[in-house]
């Protein structure tokens, strides 16, 4: 953009690049298409060998996160809450910082993810590498996915998934199916598969279909965001638990971002591609805020959930 003015989405009929927060009640930021400058560059595929740096997390952070998870498990077992995603913010001191170098390393580390660097002088600098599509829509055809369950990649693409991860994944898939049934037709739910993102594996189920004539992009976004993969079920109860118990503001973490109503030069159709803002960090001065979380169900183990967040944070921190 050629100015520092903040622009916001009104009803998702606009064209440009959207950066939306986790809280759907807050405004989504827009880089309008008619104010954007497009620059392209071919990146040389030279992956730098990343030195495995030792990172420590203080015991108080672990204790606090484990306590919240234990409280969430209790709520799930005693109330209508079925699942809730608990996250945390980890602060990392940066000694040397190069925007382009970090972006390149994210590209090479997360080859199957949507990798971005985003900056606005009134908001800040964000990096991310998301393996999760919120929504892709072209004309009346759309695609989305449910993504849940995590384990560390150990040189096998055919891992054994436990009942906890399988149930968590099914909850997300069922939510998407129920949310879309009134606004779509020809809904197709693919077979669940394992995908790799950096040093982690996830369960993914692709979902596709057609929009009804009466449906709008805004309706579809409101129906899906935030999904149980980043919030929980039932959505309102989970969101209330997060707002009450997480000790920080997620801001744009677990929000969504991407191209909004852009037209390809070779087509008359407008296309929207939105991704959930996972595996991300905000950089301010010499400190990076790395955001990580995990889905909690009745079968969760607090210590294991803590270790999952450590694994998720590790790759993001290594590119710094």
What would you say this structure looks like, in words?
By secondary structure, the protein is α+β, with helices and mostly antiparallel strands. It has a single domain, classed as 4-Layer Sandwich (Anthranilate synthase). It is 27% helix and 33% strand. It contains six helices and 15 strands. The strands form two sheets. Strands 1, 2, 6, 7, 8, 9, 10, 12 and 13 form a nine-stranded antiparallel beta sheet that branches. The protein has a six-stranded antiparallel beta sheet with strand order 4-5-14-15-3-11, sandwiched between helices. Helix 1 packs across helix 6. It is globular. The two termini are 26 Å apart.
- Domain count: the total is 1
Measured distance between first and last alpha carbons: 26 Å
Supply Rg: 19 Å
The helix-and-strand class reads alpha+beta
Poorly predicted sequence stretches spanning 5 or more consecutive residues: none
Shape: globular
Helix content: 25-40%
Number of helices, counting only DSSP H or I runs of 4 residues or more: 6
Let me know the largest β-sheet.
9 strands, antiparallel
Corresponding CATH architecture:
4-Layer Sandwich
Strand content: 25-35%
CATH superfamily: Anthranilate synthase
How many strands in all?
Answer: 15
Sequence of secondary-structure elements: EEHEHEEEEHEEEHEHEEEEH
Average pLDDT works out at: 90
Please identify the top-level CATH class: Alpha Beta
At CATH level 3, the topology is: Anthranilate synthase
Domain Chorismate-utilising enzyme C-terminal: 62-312
Family: Belongs to the isochorismate synthase family.
InterPro entries: ADC_synthase, Chorismate_C, IsoChor_synthase
Keywords: Isomerase
């Amino acid at each position: 953009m050629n100015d520092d003015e903040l622009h916001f989405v009104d009803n998702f009929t606009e064209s440009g690049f959207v950066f939306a927060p986790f809280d759907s009640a807050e405004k989504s930021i827009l880089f309008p298409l008619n104010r954007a400058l497009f620059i392209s560059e071919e990146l040389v595929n030279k992956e730098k060998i990343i030195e495995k740096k030792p990172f420590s997390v203080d015991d108080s952070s672990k204790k606090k996160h484990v306590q919240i998870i234990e409280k969430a498990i209790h709520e799930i077992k005693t109330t209508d809450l079925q699942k809730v995603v608990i996250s945390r913010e980890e602060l990392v001191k940066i000694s040397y910082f190069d925007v382009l170098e970090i972006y390149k390393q994210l590209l090479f580390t997360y080859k199957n993810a949507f990798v971005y660097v985003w900056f606005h002088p009134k908001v800040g600098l964000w990096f991310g590498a998301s393996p999760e599509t919120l929504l892709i829509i072209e004309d009346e055809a759309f695609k989305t996915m449910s993504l849940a369950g995590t384990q560390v990649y150990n040189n096998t693409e055919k891992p054994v998934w436990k009942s906890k991860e399988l149930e968590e994944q099914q909850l997300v898939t069922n939510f998407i199916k129920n949310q879309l049934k009134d606004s779509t037709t020809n809904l197709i739910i693919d077979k669940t598969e394992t995908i790799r993102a950096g040093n982690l594996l996830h369960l993914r189920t692709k979902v596709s279909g057609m929009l009804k004539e009466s449906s709008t992009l805004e309706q579809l976004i409101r129906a899906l965001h935030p999904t149980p993969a980043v919030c929980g079920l039932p959505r309102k109860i989970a969101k209330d638990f997060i707002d009450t118990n997480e000790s920080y503001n997620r801001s744009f973490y677990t929000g969504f971002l991407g191209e909004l109503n852009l037209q390809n030069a070779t087509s008359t159709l407008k296309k929207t591609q939105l991704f959930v803002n996972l595996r991300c960090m905000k950089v301010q001065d010499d400190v990076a805020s790395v955001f990580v979380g995990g889905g909690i169900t009745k079968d969760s183990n607090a210590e294991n959930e803590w270790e999952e967040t450590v694994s998720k944070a590790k790759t993001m921190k290594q590119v710094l």
